[in-house]
Amino acid sequence: MPLISLTPQEIVAELDKHIVGQAAAKRAVAIAVRNRWRRQQLPQALATAVIPKNILMIGPTGVGKTEIARRLANLTGAPFIKVEATKYTEVGYVGRDVESMVRDLVEIAIRMVQQEQAAALREKAAAGAEERLIDMLLPLEEQGRGGGGDPETQERLKRSREKMRGQLRAGMFDAAAVEVSVTEKPQTGNLLGMMGMDQMDAMGGGGLSEMFERLMPGKTQRRRLRVPEAREFFMQQEAEKLIDRESVVQQAIERVENSGIIFIDEIDKIAGAESKSGPDVSRGGVQRDLLPIVEGSTVTTKHGPVRTDHVLFIAAGAFHQAKPSDLMPELQGRFPIRVELSDLTKDDLTRILTEPENSLMKQTVSLLSTEEVTVEFTEDAVEAIAEFAYNVNRKQQNIGARRLNSIVEKVCEELSFSASERRGQRHVINGRTVKERLTKITAEEDRSKYLL
């Protein structure tokens, strides 16, 4: 079943495997993704007019806003990027311009398509890598003995190569090492970003990047790699030769335009009336710069123009001090779907500890099992951890499910520290153990010095 054709019910069912509760938010994103598939079934003229219904998630930190969006992107294979609204500033002030989020999304999509093409070409790349290894491992006298044009020599060379190939595949040379040339290319994109010149680079079609690459050529070094590592290294090089760069860019841009997801976190931090001085001076300006991108516009990138008309934008914020209505009316209108994520109850925290496929309990048990230490959490231990997390969230700052990481780490701290000396042991962590290790901490007046 193609992922893009998942029904809303199937999407919610998949999200339920990893995220507890928040049914309204799951339904909203499931419908938004399904509408993309529906749009593709429409005539072209009508499909162009159908714009995505962007979503505004309202809720405290740690309740699953980001995780829902990230899991959704993984489920559908869509290019996904999470950005924080507070990192952007109005054009004219120091900071990144909002269009850079689209450029970053294009780079992510290019890497996705490259990886997919590399996987499809893996067999061809493996064959090329094997030939290069044979060339390096076969003795020179075997390769050049008797002159290159002699048929008998060619046949002997062929037999030698086939014998070497069989030995290589059998792992007989896995312990051997070969010398390879590794060229470290300068990260010109990161440098331009730090200099605030990434937008100029995009408008110039990547000309600045190319100029910097010429001025700062990559540094080539000789390294000795074991044969299995060299095989992977050569496979990457061979795949790069086989991949059609132009096709990769074209597919990536098409994927961004039709299925890209941009998650804008902390949007509440740029809401409200802007001050005339101080750090909030560009707050309203960021909203004005963000508006055309969310509405649908053309963003210039070094790979070509990218339309944002059908990119799905999911914005999120706690909105403790500001309200959604404090955003610009035009920007509010571009997020027609609003869902409120609820605070996590003690029962929610209990379920989060155990139900998801990669729950915190399963992670903890698996990590300690690598030291041959068997750990078991009893039911009352899980309930005690959830209760402590819930109470600390109420009394201190509410950070949602993230509180569980700190508490579980504190409960298992001594065991994790000495696990290498406890090989073969079995430890049962029950409710009494949890209370003994946490009661003294939560009883302290100065809780700020503890990571709970």
Task: Summarize the structure in words.
The chain is an alpha/beta fold. It contains 21 helices and eleven strands. The protein has helices at 8-16, 23-40, 44-49, 65-76, 100-120, 122-137, 140-144, 151-169, 188-194, 198-203, 207-215, 227-242, 245-259, 283-295, 329-333, 346-354, 360-369, 379-395, 402-411, 413-418, 431-443, and strands at residues 55-58, 80-84, 177-184, 219-226, 261-265, 298-301, 304-307, 312-317, 337-340, 374-377, 426-429. The strands form four sheets. A five-stranded parallel β-sheet has the order 2-5-8-1-9, sandwiched between helices. Helix 2 packs parallel to helix 4 and helix 5 (100-120) packs across helix 13. It starts with 7 loop residues before the first helix and ends in a 9-residue tail after the last helix.
Primary descriptors:
single chain, 452 residues, alpha/beta, 5-stranded parallel beta sheet, two-stranded antiparallel ribbon, 21 helices
Shape: globular
- Please, what is the oligomeric state? single chain
Give the number of helices.
21
Sequence of strands across the biggest β-sheet: 2-5-8-1-9
Class per helix and strand makeup = alpha/beta
Helix content: 40-55%
Strand content: 5-15%
Radius of gyration: 28 Å
Number of strands: 11
Mean pLDDT score, rounded? 81
Calculate the terminal CA-CA distance, rounded to whole Å: 43 Å
Q: Sketch the major β-sheet.
A: 5 strands, parallel
